[in-house]
Design a protein that fits this description.
Number of strands: 9
Strand order of the largest sheet: 6-5-4-3-7-8-9
Largest sheet: 7 strands, mixed
Structural class: alpha/beta
Helix content: 25-40%
Shape: globular
Length: 315
């Protein structure tokens, strides 16, 4: 990664609404959502915070618990409630009839159930959360090969940054993060009991609609057909990734999680991963020309069906 100061001198800015103020035609340069990136020709990797699922952990241990959280995720996936309530929009962005049940905001409810002061939440997470043991290997490989890694999250930027630096090391300061923020509640501060709340990244039904962050990348190269276009890969696992699932060239969906169900239902190409060792191996194979996206997606769909059959057999 090149420091942001250097990038600002060489690239324009896409504002928070995705409006392009200026993008120079110099190959591989682009700035998105005030986050600056240099593209290598081959890849840009977008990562959902499945490596460090902090929102779930803090809700399960400091909020209303695992049972209610999982039920909320299931209800969101089945469009019974919204991930974030926006009038006339479902969790998947489609129109909904006026319904008191569907007016519920499942993610806000999760976070509002946590009353612990925010610094204590970060401390607890840093002391107890575990990183996928292979993510650090992947990140070191990506830095060496100049493959940008961008974390797109429906969680909270200060928690993600603290965890990445704690678990990966100081080099994680270079990882770009596009996520929700945390602000003081009126009349309180974040270091007080029940003193903080979410500030959503955008006005969508996702709180942070990751598709809106990804699309300017694709548009930039669609508008410049003579520029080399990088392959865009995305890794995710849950309901907050539904909007992003269609937006990249290949989706890595975590085994046994909700995102696979959605991809199968909607016919979205994907491949299954269990940990970042398999993502690293697949990405290397693509880079070295040993495989291609179509073959990987076909094998991924077959693997998901085999896993489903194995689960049915065990019941």
């Amino acid at each position: 990664m090149i420091p942001n100061e250097s990038l600002r001198a060489k690239a324009g800015v896409i504002d928070a609404n995705g409006a392009v103020n200026a993008i120079r035609t110099q190959p591989h340069w682009l700035t998105v959502g005030y986050q600056q990136h240099i593209y290598r020709e081959e890849f840009v990797i977008q990562v959902e915070e499945c490596t460090i699922r902090h929102s779930s952990l803090v809700t399960d241990n400091l909020g209303f618990g695992e049972k209610l959280r999982k039920q909320g995720n299931l209800d969101t996936l089945n469009e019974k409630i919204s991930f974030r309530y926006v009038p006339s929009a479902s969790a998947l962005g489609t129109p909904l009839p006026n319904s008191d049940l569907r007016r519920r905001d499942s993610f806000w409810e999760m976070m509002e159930s946590v009353k612990t002061p925010f610094p204590e939440c970060i401390k607890l997470l840093c002391e107890n959360i575990k990183l996928d043991p292979y993510f650090k290997d992947f990140y070191q490989w990506s830095r060496k090969n100049k493959v940008p890694v961008i974390v797109l999250s429906s969680g909270m930027t200060p928690i993600i940054r603290s965890l990445l630096v704690h678990l990966v090391g100081q080099e994680a300061e270079d990882i770009e993060i596009v996520s929700n923020e945390v602000v003081d509640k009126p009349g309180k501060t974040k270091d007080q009991e029940d003193g903080w709340q979410l500030k959503y990244h955008d006005d969508s039904g996702f709180g942070h609609d990751k598709s809106l962050t990804i699309r300017p990348y694709a548009k930039h190269f669609a508008d410049r057909p003579n520029d080399p276009r990088p392959t865009m890969l995305y890794a995710g696992d849950g309901v907050s990734d539904l909007s992003a699932a269609r937006e990249t060239d290949l989706l890595f969906a975590k085994k046994g999680h909700d995102l696979i169900t959605y991809c199968e239902r909607e016919g979205i190409p994907f491949t299954v991963f269990e940990d970042w060792r398999s993502i690293l191996a697949t990405t290397k194979d693509i880079l070295e020309g040993k495989t291609n996206l179509e073959k990987i997606a076909a094998e991924g769909a077959q693997k998901a069906q085999e896993d489903k059959q194995d689960m049915e057999t065990l019941k």
